[in-house]
Amino acid sequence: MASFSTAQPLSLPRHPTFSNPNQPTANNDRSSHTISLIDRCSNLRQLKQIHAQMVRTGLFSDPYSASKLFAISALSHFASLDYACKVFDQIPQPNSFTWNTLIRAYASGPDPLRSISVFLDMVSDSRFGPNKYTFPFLIKAAAEVSSLSLGQSLHGMAVKSAVGCDVFVANSLIHCYFSCGDLDSACKVFTTIQEKDVVSWNSMITGFVQKGSPDKALELFKKMESEDVKASHVTMVGVLSACAKTRNLEFGRRVCSYIEENRVNVNLTLANAMLDMYTKCGSIEDAKRLFDKMEERDNVTWTTMLDGYAILEDYEAAREVLNSMPKKDIVAWNALISAYEQNGKPNEALLVFHELQLQKNIKLNQITLVSTLSACAQVGALELGRWIHSYIKKHGIRLNFYVTSALIHMYSKCGDLEKAREVFSSVEKRDVFVWSAMIGGLAMHGCGNEALDMFYKMQEANVKPNGVTFTNVFCACSHSGLVDEAELLFKEMESSYGIVPQEKHYACIVDVLGRSGYLEKAVKFIEAMPIPPSASVWGALLGACKIHANLSLAERACTRLLELEPRNDGAHVLLSNIYAKSGKWESVSELRKHMRVTGLKKEPGCSSIEIDGTIHEFLSGDNEHPMCEKVYGKLNEVMESLKANGYEPEMSPVLPIIDEEEMKEQSLNLHSEKLAICYGLISTEAPKAIRVIKNLRVCGDCHSVAKLISQLYDREIIVRDRYRFHHFRNGQCSCNDFW
């Protein structure tokens, strides 16, 4: 097989096996019998009985027997650190083996830093100093708490103790530095090892994979192979992991061939790694062949196959895998919910979640809640989102950063900004995702100045913003007309915050400038971009041209956009609307004809409303809803009432090919948001707010109608369209109509 490379799975470096210096060369019968009993202990109660017998017979005074008892009490599967400490305190003169055992026990326990205290007690005893068996466990403790300063101090002490180049110490240091994010130091340690073992190579490869550098891991494996280092089973799993991350199917197949040719023992872990590589690389056929051959399967196996089908959006096959699982666990359910949610199928995700709720003996976890809350946010399922929030409180589920961010995002996108603020204020610790979610919520509700204040408070809290933060801040500036503030922050992104602007940030600034009427300035900004303008950049300019009726610039922006995305139906519709606004009906007809000839169809308007936990969807002119007759009856009643109060339909969006004014008016009345609002009127009573989610931008006529309905029917109406929220109450809209 030709030379190849890869990376390994996440694993800790192997610990050294250290010997007890007091191990007798010749055991007497009593000691030998006791040691045999200790080795056969299966629980703590048995060990305590042996301990008591050793004390009675005086055998506990034998250093080897005592240290053996202590090691089992500290390191066995039934170990008890509290009991082990009591045993340790009874040993008159603990030797280096016993000290190292206690350090190891604490380093592997719930409070790894306790091992440092034990270490300090050890060195205070002038009889013993640290040796090559001591440092790996201390360094492991530093890695567990990701303390770079502690790892560096221990590194220095190991060098001073002349064991810094020991392979076990060095391997532990590599793992520690990677855990703390110091890749350069890990590489330096690696180069100092004169006789590297396979763990040395695996520790480096593992670190690179874990820290998002699988390409470097692959290069290192090439070097490993060139130096004739025999790869281990762990290395093979790592190779496949790197192939999966780099989506390198060709190399992954070669690795699988290598495993077969060299008769590598394919246990379940390795088989699952092969399966994961195939699914991540999109080769579901290879995955299915391997899956069918596997004699042993666990839930990881089944879930990997489910993920593979979901990646390819073959949800029927993914569902079949879930149904076929011998034992469905929460991980499998989460995989299907997440697959639907992340691929723009939130309603399907919620259906799976409701099915999960009916399952017995399966508890929802934080991943379930985050995925489901994200689906709720997409469709505006506020009632279900509230239920999940109550479930979190009732079951005492910890609000980690992900759950907190998901709750803020859900409440914000469902129109309950006050509740989003409440969740944000309820947590003491906030990471960049929590801050960004709150800033994003304020942005979509038009609270630009408050979003900016939140951005600066975030920095006062010593939380560094990321690219998402800036996107949300720029959106806030765009909808609030904060041009100077947006331009200043954009200039500071790289110089002050170390974040290189991406295409989405450039598009945001074009939107900020364009919405405020600085169209020529927006054009100059685009021309000065260091990267080619994307479709989103030209789309932002085109949208601004519609606001300010700049036809010539709109045609230019649309041409450039369609060069990048010829099948972009939104660009055609937007330009058509600009033509209509300018009275160029012939151009409108030509553009619509072009769309028909090329098979381009306008995305249909769709509005949804949640009633009693169920999402109801309405398309423009919908007659599929079971209550459509009542909805249209209510719509006629509403429109008559509005006309009696001076309402006149805004006809500009309606094509002139509809000759009769009555037909134009009827066309406007069929817009999906009007149907959803009317369904809300007949399905709910005041003071309950009517919350509607629209997939497209709300037209001017629907905006006017919603304002009048809120006044005549004394109802609060909240509409979220593709770009922002519109809050209607008492005939007023809290959002600035222009922005």
Automatic annotation (TrEMBL):
Boundaries of every DYW domain copy: 646-739
Keyword Repeat: yes
Region (Disordered): 1-32
GO cellular component: chloroplast
Stretches forming PPR repeats: 197-231, 267-297, 298-332, 400-430, 431-465, 466-496
Recorded superkingdom: Eukaryota
Keyword annotations: Repeat
Biological process, per Gene Ontology: chloroplast RNA processing; RNA modification
Biased composition, class Polar residues, residue ranges: 17-32
Gene Ontology terms for molecular function: mRNA binding; zinc ion binding
Homology family: Belongs to the PPR family. PCMP-H subfamily.
Protein name: DYW domain-containing protein
Organism: Brassica campestris
Lineage, uppermost ranks: Eukaryota, Viridiplantae, Streptophyta, Embryophyta, Tracheophyta
